[in-house]
Amino acid sequence: KPAVRSAARTQARQPVPITPTASSLTAGITPSVARALLYQAPAGQTETTIDRSQFENRPAFSVADVLRESPGISVKQGNGPRDIGISIRGSNARNGFGIRNLVIFEDGFPVTQPDGLSRSDLIDPKAYSAIDVIRGPSSALFGNYATGGALNFRTRPGRTIDGVEYGVEGGSFGYLNNYLATGKKVGNFEGSLFASDARGDGFIGNSWFNTQTVNFLGTLQATPDDRFTVKFINNNLDTRLPLRQTLTQYYQNPYQQGCTTGGNVALGCPTVSLFNNGFNGLTTPQTATEAGLGRFDRRTIVGGRWEHDFDNTTTWRNQFVFDDRNINQPTGSTSAIGDFPSYNYMSDITKRGEIFGLESTVYFGAFYNTLTASSDSRFVMPGGNATLGRLQSNTWSDTTNYGVRAREELKLTPQLTAIAGIGWEATHLKGINTAYNYGTSPVPNPTIIPTTADRQFQNTAPELALLYKLNPEWLFRARVATGYGTPQVSNLFVLSTGAPGNNTQLQTQTNLGYDIGFDWTPNSALKFSATGFYEFFRNELVSQATQVSGVSYMFNAPRSEHRGIELAADWKFYRGWRFTAAYTYLDQFYTEYTEDIRSTGAGGTVFSFNRAGNKIPGISPHELTARLGYEQMWGPLAGLGAFVEVQWKDSFYMDNANLQRAPGYELVNLNVHYKTDLISDYFKSLNVYFEVRNVFDRTYVASANNIQNTVTGGVQGLSGTGSIYAGSPRAFIAGMKLAFK
């Protein structure tokens, strides 16, 4: 896949970085920088860059702590301490785990695997200098799965660290994070290395965690025209995992206290039924603590990039990434075990010049990526420590994507720039799911039931955008673009009951989106952005939890519409004072979808329900993050600062029938921090901070997966599936960072 941003930090032709505006998109810059601007903030597309200054002086344990700074972004707690579901314009809010419907990069290297799954376990925000949030359908530039947009995490360049930094933060619920950053630019080489060790007891029963992350970026200017970049990421995760609760259980016991024994547990404790013999027959209900549920995963990514400048206007780039996701996940009644190695190769050319006397930047690239894996699902049985029983199913899968894409940015007038792009991609999904049916016999002699899938998809995604720079204060944006996302092979073998079976009829989801917006910057102290969007989906892939704990079912909703408004403000209204806000309004609903539900009991009647007009579950209509801060800029207290932050998330439906809502919430956070330079032969600076989160100790829902509807006596109801994780109660966190020369 093409990178979001060039990671080359050292170049023979040192350009002056510029902001990609309509008045000067390409003039006076090398092709490497032109390409960097093209991918970091694609012209004409709605984009927000979250700068390190916005989160450097606060605890930032996971991406949830920093991405709220951008409108259009929604986050929810996943299955693990740093496993955060990231949604752009509601794109991933409907998924039960991980991240779908957007593409993620680090320094231009893809960290979304070829099957479209991303996970945020490997992301420690302290490693990054900035995060680019690109919103709206973006498959013309980023390919498969970019129906919602893309994210690019930019690690800190070595020259900005210029030495060694050590930091530590800790606080409530046994949280402790030790981290180290080192970087330098020496001659033609620039590199940075980040490492962290984070652990804690968790605020929910059975949520203890221990995770380590290493992140390296290095660039060598081998010749005046050749740059080599290496990227390495490794994350180890060892975490206990609680069960999700129903809404009733959440109200009774949100933090799952006293949920240690299945026979005598506190009110509101979720349990999972485990086969006593590990494959069929009698079951015993056990809590997450009794069963020993958790995740024991490793993720390793190694990437390399070679860039060659043919001349001052043309650059050729080749990039290769190896990404291995190794999982052991006893998260419910079954455990997923497997290794998912993938390979990603891309090659592209960027050319800057003129067409008919007009300034032009042209990009053309080709790519190929593949993932081949074999994974098992085994029954979890009583006995503790996630004791494994017999094999429930095995899935062999192969996912391959290849294609080409092109893009043109043309400056029509000094004020008007046009952008056009198109991407074509072929996807091949192959897989065999072998289910083991043990029947009622006490002897483990299963009936083997294979289900095969061999699906091929071809998708094309055009886009067109216009930028109009009225004057230095006003920039207007308009865009029409398309996105597409194929299902994962694993989606093809799960029935709505949660059992293995044939779901191979799934289709590619596509969306056509219209954006119109403006950026108003009347002076250096104020920036205000507004964007309205309307997107039309076909065959939208929607996930809902099944009655099998930890197993989700995927289906296509034939037609749906997504529309909304995104607002962002940054106002330095008085010396030392700063107000920032990010607001998102979402209105998403089915326009064509009939759901068939079988009534309870053996041989139950199938009822059909028209969902047209119903809200799509999982989508909060209103979200707001606002912050008011003060920084002392002079005098003996220079470097002392504080802010108060408000987070608001509105209630949202949890089911297709719109019978049940997850409650909304408002949180208040307070922060005090101090940073000072040190006069020393060894130390450069000291940064200390203290934060109180959820000041008023609100009980709130941090995650609520979509749940099934049921039918009893012809009347719709709700399944008893666990869906909810509570958010953190009031927490106190303190930290410090010391920079060495």
Automatic annotation (TrEMBL):
Residues 45-150 form the TonB-dependent receptor plug domain. GO terms for molecular function: siderophore uptake transmembrane transporter activity. One of its GO terms (biological process) is siderophore transmembrane transport. Residues 1-23 are annotated as: Disordered. Keywords: Cell outer membrane, Membrane, Receptor, Signal, TonB box, Transmembrane, Transmembrane beta strand, Transport. InterPro entries: Beta-barrel_TonB, Beta-barrel_TonB_sf, Plug_dom, Plug_dom_sf, TonB-dep_rcpt-like. This is TonB-dependent receptor.
